[in-house]
Amino acid sequence: MDEGVSFEGINSDADLIAWSRQYCRGVRREQGVSVRFDLVDWAVSHRAKRRAAAVKRPKLDDATVGERYDWDSVEGSDGRPLPCTVSLTWDAFSAFERAVWEATLRHELIHVEQYQRDGTTDHGRAFQERADQLDTDVHCPAFSDPKHVLTCGACGDLVARRYQDCKLVERREQYRSDCCGASLELA
Questions:
Q1: CA distance 82 to 84
Q2: Distance between CA 54 and CA 104 in Å, rounded?
Q3: 158-162 and 84-89 as β-strands: parallel, antiparallel, unpaired?
Q4: What per-residue confidence (pLDDT) applies to 39?
Q5: What is the pLDDT of residue 3?
Q6: Could you tell me if 106 and 180 lie in one domain?
Q7: For the chain, what is the radius of gyration of the CA atoms?
Q8: What is the reported pLDDT for 102?
Q9: Are 73 and 105 in a shared domain?
Q10: For 78-111, what is each residue's pLDDT tens digit?
Q11: Which contacts (CB < 8 Å, 24+ apart) does range 97-101 have?
């Protein structure tokens, strides 16, 4: 696969991975993101509806964001972080402008950086600070239409988007909005 594929020329999973990997390497070089790409696998999802991308990693029970993880304690790690996978969502890539896709990749790089250092990752204060440094958001924009939209019965503000039936949708009369404390309505 040619690593020099243009953004406009992406038309396959391999192209998307190659372009995204190359972009992330540039961010690492220019922004000082501490990521080992030899420990990162890449995949493309054609099923995801809510997440533009994700870092899939093993769950380490004793890991805490902000505390360097002792990778020597993990059998078979040889002191290196266990591999993780950056899973890119094709529908998000297709829906987003280039700048939004690039921001999505920077978001995922923060997760990889935290995971490789701390053994886990989250969207807490450290993530928010790093997101500001890398000019990205804590949450990605929606790229597909939800099956259900719940709003505040008093002010009409968005409360939740749900992509499948769930307890919140089915029992919405039992819940109240955070903004006004009003009942939830299905829009």
A1: 7
A2: 10
A3: unpaired
A4: 97
A5: 55
A6: no
A7: 19
A8: 98
A9: yes
A10: 999 999 999 999 999 999 999 999 999 999 999 9
A11: 98/7, 100/140, 100/141, 101/7, 101/20, 101/52
Check whether residue 100 and residue 31 sit in a common domain: yes
- Last residue of some domain: 133, 158, 178? 133
**Spans of the chain below 50 pLDDT:** 1-2
What DSSP element (H or E) covers 118?
helix 98-118
Question: What is the four-CA torsion angle of 54, 10, 135, 138, rounded to 10 degrees?
Answer: -20
As for how many domains the chain has, the answer is: 2
* Nearest-angstrom CA–CA distance, 103 and 131: 9
Q: Is residue 138 part of a domain?
A: no
Contacts of 96 (CB under 8 A, 6+ apart): 52, 104, 141, 143
Joined together, the tokens standing for residue 11 give 């038309």
SS3 assignment, position 94 = helix
The confidence score (pLDDT) of residue 142 equals: 84
Lookup: tokens for 5: 């594929």
In terms of domains, do 83 and 110 share one?
A: yes
Q: Identify the pLDDT of residue 144.
A: 86
Domain that holds residue 161: 148-186
CB 31 within 8 A of CB 82: no
